[in-house]
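Can you make up a polypeptide sequence alongside its tokenized fold?
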Amino acid sequence: MFTNEFVKERSDHFENLPAQDLLKWVFETYENVGFTSSFSADDVSIINMIREIKPDGLIIFIDTDYHFPETYDLVEKLKKEWNLNLKIIKPLITVEEMEERYGEKLYEKDPDKCCQIRKVEPLKRILEDLDVWITGMRRDQSPTRANIGKVETHKLPSGKTILKVNPIADWTRKDVWNYVNENNLPYNPLYDQNYLSIGCAPCTRPVLEGEDERAGRWAGKGKLECGLHTFTEKE
């Protein structure tokens, strides 16, 4: 089992491992491994690497009920064409039940609450079953992600410690698209409309020239993270 000391001692080693080699180490070393994917270009790149290492590797998609139709289409396409071991998790309450409880358009009135209900709570449930959590985060996406490591230990609210692996933390957006193009990977067509970070439809807009990659998420709300990567405690 991993410890924070183990991760710190090998941090330089992990940082120097190419993404595919790091993923290979993860799947050779641990059993309860899952990759949470929004099916972004970054995530599709990682899924493609996982397929080559462990074809039945667990891919997790959080269905908030608010995704763009283009996102749902891509999820279904890759599930079928790549024969993915895909687990779709949903919130405990429907959009209709949420509106009855909190009113319409909670995503506008209290986006943090909406993300907590439709994203964070489902993720908390699935992480309790995992030992290793793979993500598609990159350091150049936003200031909130600038200092992430490739391998970190995190404590869940339950007290459980989990290994969090960010295999493309050191990639740039250009690196992602080079990989996508070199491997002829499918991607969400919204990217062609300058959606550089694609989340829920009501809270995502195209990015303007000169803006951070995630500036199109929750625009005007003073919010850059949905909470998926902030509710755990980095050790």
